[in-house]
Amino acid sequence: MKWTLLAKLALAVVLAPVVLVAAYVLFLVTYSYYPELFFHREFYLACKSIRPGVSVSSARTTMSGFLEVGRTWQPPATLPAGIFGAATEHSETAREHDSRLLFIPDANNVADWCMVYPKGEIVARVEFSPD
């Protein structure tokens, strides 16, 4: 079958949106699981390197190049009240929510979170939440 110019144009018109949607979905899925491929590489790699069972002080040392909300950095009054107390898509109990350590890459990127959930002085779990 010989492709005419009109047939090629019609195929391009149909395929272009499909390819764009597929690329966008691939980006969203990849970004959700591997945000370090796109932004704040060192931040997410450090967060992902913290393993359950290590001490909280070890986790803080690992994240020492970044800001710990409420401890090494106080949010300015210009940020919406309660932004760092907000729930995330990760399930957490009220106790976990109140005791979590929240790290951000820097003061200009407050929507990228590394959440360390301690149980006493030991890390119970670690979650990350890209903006």
Tell me what the structure shows.
This protein has helices at residues 5-33, 41-49, 56-62, 94-99; strands at residues 67-68, 101-104, 113-119, 122-129. It is elongated and about 70 Å long. It folds into two domains: 1-33; 41-129, no CATH class. The relative contact order is 0.17. It has a four-stranded antiparallel beta sheet with strand order 1-2-3-4. The protein is an alpha+beta fold. The model has no long low-confidence stretch (mean pLDDT 83). Strand 3 and strand 4 (122-129) form a beta hairpin. Helix content is 39%, strand content 16%. It starts with a helix and ends with a strand. The protein contains four helices and four strands.
Layout of helices and strands, plus pairs?
Layout: H1 5-33, H2 41-49, H3 56-62, E1 67-68, H4 94-99, E2 101-104, E3 113-119, E4 122-129
Antiparallel strand pairs: 1-2, 2-3, 3-4
Fraction in helix: 25-40%
Low-pLDDT runs of 5+ residues are none
**Number of helices, counting only DSSP H or I runs of 4 residues or more:** 4
Largest sheet: 4 strands, antiparallel
- Please report which band the strand proportion falls in: under 5%, 5-15%, 15-25%, 25-35%, 35-45% or over 45%: 15-25%
Described by the principal axes of the CA atoms, the overall outline is elongated
The pLDDT mean sits at 83
